[in-house]
Specification:
About 5% of the residues lie in helices and about 60% in strands. It is built from one helix and 14 strands; from the N terminus they run αββββββββββββββ.
Amino acid sequence: MSTHTRLFICFLILFSVMAAHAQDTTATQFGWKKEAVGNLSFTQTSFDNWVQGGENAVAWQADVNAKFIDDREKFNWSNTGKVSFGRIKVGDAESRKAADEIKLESVLTYKLGVYVNPYIAATGLTQIATGYIYTATTKTAISAFMDPGYFTQSFGVGYSPVAEFKSRLGAALKETFTKDYPIPYADDPKTKTVEKTKIEVGAESVTDFSKKLSANIIWTSKLELFSNLKQANEIDVNFDNIFSAKVSTYINVALNVKLFYDRDISRKRQLKQVLSLGMSYAFL
């Protein structure tokens, strides 16, 4: 069993343990609310004496999304986690990574009894397996588990006029940690030394939106902005959108469109789009 596969299984076990130890929702309107949903999609294409040409291909992706929310009269403690991993193999080439993300977020909000409430938050972001850049004859490693690893701590005020929409804005501290791949994630090209850690002080804005477009279609959106308060073109953007359609009890179709911009990594915006058909199962 490969290293990335073992790590992926470990994180699935971690979410199962979290679910098992979460408190049961009480009969009142307050208490723990928990949800864990897993999705698995698989695609396979095979050709034999197909005169029009084509390449055999196999692709799969697994996702686990979990929420553990403790809602009380005076505070709300929201914990969310996302693990996503997938691979693709085309023709005789070795299998390559198609999706890879681990993201954890914890937000503690104190309720003042109004729409605007103070909060403190912490997030962590990394990946599972080693990432490579491929050429016709070579592959070069450019990232790995916790290399880079991103951590952000913030405090400020949150705004949630309706259940489907919530936004927060506050001061933030963002750390980027690397080990073997400091360039371009943490290194400052203006200095002669190679920095493996980068710490930025600035402002963070996070907006979550969820809307049921029809009986079986849900749009979930998350917009994350971070500014080091230096220049407008240095604002980091992470805009993640998922359109999910439920075909049956266990079958769903999902379209994920993600826009990412970090001038320290690339001067151009990055865009990822994934359309998947697969099985969905709610653990909680």
